[in-house]
Amino acid sequence: MGKIEWAMWANEQALAAGLIYATGGIVGVAGQFRGWQFAAFGIAAGVFVCLLEYPRSKRGKGTSVERTGQYCFTVCVNAFGPLTRNYYVRAFLHAALCVPGGFMLATVLGCVCLGIASLIYLSAAIHGEHWEPILPRTEPPKRVGDSIKEPPQNPPPRPPPELRRKKADKLETAAYDNPMSVTVNE
Amino acid sequence: MSNWIINQGLSAFILVVWMGINIFLFVYFYLFYDLGPQFEYTRELLGSALPWARAPAAVLNFNCMLILLPVCRNLLSLLRGSFICCGRTMRKQLDKNLTFHKLVAYMIALMTAVHTIAHLLNAEWYTNSFQGRYGPLATKLSMLGDSRELNTTYLNPVRSNSTTPTILVFTTIAGLTGVVITLALILMITSSMEVIRRSYFEVFWYTHHLFIVFFAGLVFHGAGRIVRSQQVTDPPHNNSLCENQLENWGKTADCPVPQFAGGFPQTWMWVIGPMIIYLCERLLRFIRYMQPVSYRKIVIRPSKVLELQLVKPGFKMQVGQYVFLNCPAISQLEWHPFTMTSAPEEDFFSVHIRLVGDWTEKLIKMVENLPEGGQGPKMAVDGPFGTASEDVFDYEVSMLVGAGIGVTPFASILKSIWYKFKDSDPKLRTKKIYFYWLCRETYAFEWFADLLQVLEKDMEERGMRDFLTYKLYLTGWDQSHVNHAMVHFDKETDIITGLKQKTSYGRPNWDREFEQVQQENPSSVVGTFLCGPQALAKDLEKKCVKYSDVDPRKTKFYFNKENF
Question: ipTM higher than 0.85?
Answer without folding.
Answer: no
